[in-house]
Amino acid sequence: MSYKKLNRESLIIVTQKHIFIFGLGYVGTALADRLAAEGWHITGTTRDPSAHKRAGEAQWTLLPFGSNGAIDGLDSHLQKCNVILSTIAPQDKQDPVLRYHRDLLRIWSKQKSVWSGYISATSVYADEIDDWVDENTPPAPATERGRVRVATELDWQNSTNAEIFRVAGIYGPGRSAFTALRENRARIIDKSDHLFNRIHLDDIAGGILAAMATPEPCRIVNLTDKEPAKQGDVVRYAADLLGMAPPPTIPYEEADLTPMARSFYKSRRKLRSVRLESELGYRLKYPNYRKGLEAVLKADQKAEIK
Description:
Blueprint: E1 18-22, H1 26-37, E2 41-46, E3 60-64, H2 74-78, E4 83-86, H3 96-109, E5 115-121, E6 128-133, H4 144-160, E7 163-167, E8 169-171, H5 177-182, E9 188-190, E10 198-200, H6 201-213, E11 220-223, H7 231-242, E12 249-251, H8 259-264, E13 269-271, H9 289-305
Parallel strand pairs: 1-2, 1-4, 2-3, 4-5, 5-7, 6-13, 7-11, 8-10, 9-12
């Protein structure tokens, strides 16, 4: 993969092909797998390196990192990398990576031909049901989690010139409505006018790779599909694909929800990206939940056969 020069602050060419990913979870590992297939070396953090599915593989260096301590020897690892991505959400209202390593990352970011990115969330936007929300919409979060996300985005931009990826509801192989349906955990919570967007795991990785190829410091990109929909519509479609009856509908007012789950229903919005195609040149593989769920079902079935 090569980088196109946009301005003197942008990346020029990746020669090391070595990325450091803070948080090799669902999203981080998917992106790393794509890069590893292109010959990149992956260094990243996980709570338990020995339990990670890539433990012991030559191209992967796994480091332990939690919320209660710094990463030993991070400086020596960063010297080998010219790309950094963080997928770790704020904890206790602060970013754990910057909490322990802000100064080191700030120094790293002053080098030529380096790039950093931060995975954020669409909770930074306001409760908006009438108009579309895009990257030009000012943040106005309706929840405390959203307000913390806004502050964390600014922190990453100020510290490393990071590009910010505001990611809609994540789904993909092994993590979708199918899993909840099979485990008899699926519920349909009905709240009038509650719409939200999703994004398939492959399109998250694809969007980030496209940004790396057309870099712009501090740019904000919405990673979202093109069809906001009700939660019940998604569950019903997944049930139909499985040949199952959908669960009964529960009015929002009667639903037994955790505080975090209830905060999800607090905001309604119709998301879109005005930069994904026009600036990054990336076209979604799965522009709506139907196409995405169909692909997930095939992937899940293939994994079961293996």
